[in-house]
Every structure is written in C-alpha cells, then in structure tokens.
Design the sequence.
C-alpha cells in the first residue's frame, strides 16, 4: 500500500514538472479545486531553478558553464543532423536568452520579497541541486562560504555583497535556504 502511494506521488511530481509554470502556479494555490501540496513544492523548486538559469546562463555570457556546447554544431551540414537538438541551444542560437517562464519566475520572486540572505541561500542551493551541475557549483557549502562574494556575483549580486550577507558555515546556507523555501511555499499557497 505504501509503495503504491509513493509511486503515485512520483508520477504526480513528474506531471507537475512537465506542466507550464502558469498552470502549475494555479494548482499550487490552496483555493484551486485540484490543489495538491506537491504541486506547490514543485512550483517553488521550478521558480528557483529558472531564476538560477536566468541569472547564470541567460542574463550574461557565462562562458564555459552553459548546459550545452558552443561548438555543438560545428561541421554539421546546413540541414542539421538526425540527432534531437536541445531546445535551449536552439533558442540560444536564435538570440533568445530569456523565456516568458523565466520572467514569470522572476516576478514571483519579486512578489515573495525574501530577505536577501534567504534568497541568495535558496539560489545557491538550487544551483547546487541542478542535475546538470558542473564547474564551481559542484563544491561543498563550506567551500562556497569561503568564497561567498564570487558565488553571489555569479548569481547577479553586486561586488561586495559578502560584507552585508554573511554565512559562518555551510549549514547556515542550508538553514537560510530552508527558510526562504518555506516562505515561498506559503506565498504560493495563498496565491
């Protein structure tokens, strides 16, 4: 019985992860007739992932850390190849940096008005848990604390932010991220 419920939860999470963000935000609201708490968690995770993506890959040229190669299409014939193309790479080639869903995620974060400390921690955590993580985001939280200014700048904060936002240990980042996520979940439920 418990295993069937667990499989059903995974199946619904998968459905929510493929759902457009605007529709997911509707279901995340408690006032929606088909509200599911799992939809709210998936929505918050998606918002953070999209904001990290917007800040690190699209808002500026962050050479070397895109989830696709800048040389991926070299040597291909004008008609392309038979392999499936990455939609983000195609959008990038066309000069489309920010998708409408990225803008929706940014607007939700503005609406949430998180303390800068909690927002930075939640974005660091989202960057680290991204399944495509490579490069500097593969370091431990304790290592990130040692170079907080560098990581904050990669996420769009101005130089010197480490003088106003401080984490003594890696666990402090995790606690602040948890606080930020909890606040976003409550706001997403309210609408």
Sequence:
């Amino acid at each position: 019985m418990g295993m069937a419920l667990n499989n059903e939860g995974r199946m619904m999470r998968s459905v929510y992860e493929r759902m457009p963000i605007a529709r997911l935000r509707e279901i995340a609201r408690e006032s929606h007739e088909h509200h599911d708490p799992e939809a709210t968690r998936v929505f918050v995770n998606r918002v953070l992932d999209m904001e990290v993506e917007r800040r690190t890959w699209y808002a500026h040229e962050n050479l070397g850390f895109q989830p696709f190669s800048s040389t991926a299409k070299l040597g291909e014939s004008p008609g392309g190849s038979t392999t499936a193309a990455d939609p983000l790479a195609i959008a990038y080639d066309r000069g489309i940096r920010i998708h409408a869903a990225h803008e929706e995620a940014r607007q939700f974060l503005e609406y949430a008005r998180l303390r800068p400390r909690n927002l930075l921690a939640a974005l660091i955590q989202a960057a680290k848990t991204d399944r495509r993580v490579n490069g500097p985001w593969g370091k431990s939280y304790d290592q990130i604390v040692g170079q907080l200014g560098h990581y904050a700048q990669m996420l769009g904060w101005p130089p010197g932010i480490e003088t106003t936002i401080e984490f003594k240990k890696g666990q402090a980042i995790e606690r602040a991220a948890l606080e930020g996520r909890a606040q976003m979940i409550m706001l997403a439920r309210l609408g």
Observations:
- The chain has a mean pLDDT of 77.
